[in-house]
């Protein structure tokens, strides 16, 4: 599943179509996409893992799910979920969710929980964590209502950086460690963006998919952790378990 930084790259890739009119629309989306014909795109936005195509009175929300892809000014052989054609190019989305959001986009999203948005509010995240002391940190980091845009790669890398075991209980983690984790969720997301643009993201992974801890030279543990049962890679020697 594409994480927040990858959706920011998508937004940057399609800026050429801002202010352009859609002259043709097609695809196998389950909604009435015909309403998009002859509409002009006002702007593109992102919220976490959501890509947003904004018009005057509504927005198209695209979620890439696990295997979604897109093409700018080219097509795949498979039928797109949504295809938008302009006078000077086209935009195609595949294997994704497409929905309409009616009215003002600001009524649908809290921008302050998006770790890559200029309105990101780490204090708000801290308040949210204080309200769920019995949850595991590996689950909470993936909660899009608190850390919109953070996915499993970022989760693993942040917890390794912060020396915290993924199965640690929120209420048992020292406050300074919580603050560091919250900050790193945003910091690492921007580093992820930088590395991905340079096509070198995997070179910088220190925990995700790794088999040996670079700090301790001991085997990593690979386990499905928390209620979400997402893959965690961690070192039981240097990542402290707070329970």
UniProtKB/TrEMBL annotation:
Catalysis performed (reactions): Hydrolysis of DNA containing ring-opened 7-methylguanine residues, releasing 2,6-diamino-4-hydroxy-5-(N-methyl)formamidopyrimidine
Q: Example GO molecular function term?
A: damaged DNA binding
Per UniProt, residues of the Formamidopyrimidine-DNA glycosylase catalytic domain are: 2-101
Key words, A-Z: DNA damage, DNA repair, DNA-binding, Endonuclease, Glycosidase, Hydrolase, Lyase, Multifunctional enzyme, Nuclease
| Protein's UniProt keywords contain Oxidoreductase | no
Matching PANTHER family, A to Z? FORMAMIDOPYRIMIDINE-DNA GLYCOSYLASE
UniProt cross-references to PROSITE patterns, sorted A to Z: FPG_CAT
The UniProt record lists the keyword Transmembrane: no
Annotated protein name in UniProt: Endonuclease
Q: Which family does it belong to?
A: Belongs to the FPG family.
């Amino acid at each position: 599943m594409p994480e927040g930084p990858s959706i920011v790259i998508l937004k940057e890739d399609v800026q050429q179509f801002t202010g352009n009119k859609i002259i043709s629309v097609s695809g196998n989306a389950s909604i009435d996409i015909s309403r998009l014909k002859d509409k002009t795109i006002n702007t593109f936005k992102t919220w976490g893992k959501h890509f947003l195509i904004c018009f005057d009175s509504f927005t198209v929300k695209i979620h890439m799910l696990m295997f979604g892809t897109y093409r700018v000014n080219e097509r795949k052989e498979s039928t797109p979920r949504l295809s938008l054609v302009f006078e000077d190019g086209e935009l195609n989305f595949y294997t994704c969710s497409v929905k309409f959001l009616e009215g003002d986009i600001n009524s649908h999203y809290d921008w302050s929980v998006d770790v890559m948005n200029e309105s990101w509010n780490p204090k708000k995240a801290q308040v949210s964590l204080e309200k769920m002391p019995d949850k595991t940190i590996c689950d909470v980091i993936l909660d899009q209502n608190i850390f919109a845009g953070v996915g499993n790669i970022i989760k693993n890398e942040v917890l390794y950086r912060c020396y915290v075991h993924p199965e640690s209980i929120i209420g048992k983690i020292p406050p300074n460690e919580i603050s560091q984790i919250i900050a790193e969720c945003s910091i690492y997301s921007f580093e992820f963006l930088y590395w991905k643009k340079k096509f070198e993201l995997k070179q910088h992974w220190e925990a995700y998919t790794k088999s040996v801890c670079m700090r301790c030279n001991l085997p990593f543990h690979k386990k499905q952790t928390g209620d979400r049962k997402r893959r965690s890679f961690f070192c039981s020697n240097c990542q402290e378990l707070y329970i």
